[in-house]
Amino acid sequence: MIPNTDWLQHAACAGMDPRAFFSTGNHARAQVNAARRVCAACPVREQCANWAIQTGERNGVWGGMSQQELRQRRRRFTSRAKTSMTAPKAPAKKKEPAKCGTRSGYQKHLRDKTEICAPCRQANTDADNRLRRTGTTRAAA
């Protein structure tokens, strides 16, 4: 679907040569700045920029924005659209503290720099052996 273009008749650039908004050659920077000056006084500047973003326009000055500025705004626009379309996240489950006699208990001892108890040491050894045999540290259900 192509967005509505009724705003074009009110644009400050209506009737101008479109090439003035597409920079080329050695004077590209000067052309961009000249185009931006025209856009600065335009009453439909926002509609122009939105149109360029929605249609994926990749060249020229639109709504007073350079190609780089349009790309940045397009990224923000698409990331916002993706965010609003995704389902809200479920609240995070509270993790229970690591219990002794488990591999996570062994890792907690290491993090806290406390002495590793015998049940945790055994659980870690069992998990290492399971990893070598099956490729996972999880015990079979």
Automatic annotation (TrEMBL):
Stretches the record annotates as Disordered: 63-108, 121-141
Superkingdom of origin: Bacteria
Entry-linked PROSITE patterns: 4FE4S_WBL (PS51674)
Keyword Thylakoid applies: no
Stretches assigned to coiled coil: none
Known cofactor(s): [4Fe-4S] cluster
Post-translational changes noted in the entry: Upon Fe-S cluster removal intramolecular disulfide bonds are formed.
Compartment(s) of residence: Cytoplasm
A Pfam family it matches: Whib
Cofactor note: Binds 1 [4Fe-4S] cluster per subunit. Following nitrosylation of the [4Fe-4S] cluster binds 1 [4Fe-8(NO)] cluster per subunit.
Residues that, per the record, bind [4Fe-4S] cluster: 13, 39, 42, 48
Keywords of the record: 4Fe-4S, Cytoplasm, Disulfide bond, DNA-binding, Iron, Iron-sulfur, Metal-binding, Transcription, Transcription regulation
Chief location: cytoplasm
Domain 4Fe-4S Wbl-type: start-end pairs: 12-72
Physiological role: Acts as a transcriptional regulator. Probably redox-responsive. The apo- but not holo-form probably binds DNA.
PANTHER family: TRANSCRIPTIONAL REGULATOR WHID-RELATED (PTHR38839)
Similarity comment: Belongs to the WhiB family.
HAMAP family, alphabetized: WhiB
Official protein name in the record: Transcriptional regulator WhiB
Originating organism: Streptomyces bullii
